[in-house]
Here is the input.
Amino acid sequence: MSTTDSPTIPTNAADPGLRTRSTSAFRSRKDQVRYWILLTTLLGLGLAAALGLLLYNNPVPVDSPSFIPVVQRRMVAIIAMFIAALCHSVATVAFQSVTGNRIITPSLLGYEALYSFIQTGIMFFLGATALVSFSGSSAFFLQVALMIVLSLILFGWLLSGKYGNLHLMLLVGIIIGTGLNSLSGFMRRMLAPSEFDLLQSRLIGSVTNADAEYFPLVIPIVIVTTLGMYLLSRRLNILSLGKDVATTFGVHYQRNLILILVMIAVLMAVTTSLIGPLTFFGFLVAMLSYQAAPTFDHKYLFSMAFAIGFAILTTAYFVLYHILNSQTVVSVVIELFGGLIFLIVILRKRSL
Here is the structure.
């Protein structure tokens, strides 16, 4: 199908602020060229910042035998950034499309609240030694499994039978997440200051939390899931138009909705267990990608969102660590800007 000027069809309420939706990926050749130039620039920026993180300010000379081990240790952080950017960008864009709302994020389903509850519960009931020992592949995949099981219960219960209501599922997810956060907050108040400090380091999302031991299993899971989401991008284009339109086009709305939500659950569970909570990062990336990519085709939206997410993470770490000489946790700064943009969007829309 040509990417030049093409007929348009009306959008639904899921696309606020836009009156028409093109039947092709881009409305004009100019939009297509602009997209590829911006995508290439962002990918180049992300790769340049990643290379800077690997090589810049390396205390070991290049000809030293210790140079490669230092680079390998830094490479763990780069891979963690890649995984975080890929998971959050794809999961958030897909989630906002199937729910028809560009304000909400997958965090509403309680992944981060459950992660916080697990870590806090181990510290509260078993002590600091147990929390430090709670590592390795078994512990990691136990957390991932619990998050996915919670999601499957929500999807199976609230998206089938007499319920079958997506908004009810979101409401229940918010209530569960709020309840888990309240219990976690209560337990943290009962901890000793030293225990609280140890726990807090795990509850703030950071690439330094990532363990290279998990990569051989995490990377294939993330690649297969994102590839599956990419292959479903055309179906996701139709689902984003709403249940009535999707049914008219012959798409089984319920089945495809649950399939995409399960894939979102896998991505969010993996990245949260690997690096910790990043509540507003996905929202920030998704909002920027909608502005940068003049298209509704998810095949292109996913690519742009990933490029923006990876560029944000690598550039932020490089600037803070090597230019500002600050050891501030980058995720705190990103969450701050993400939260501010979230408030700005809500105030401009005056609704959820």
Q: What stands out?
A: The radius of gyration is 21 Å.
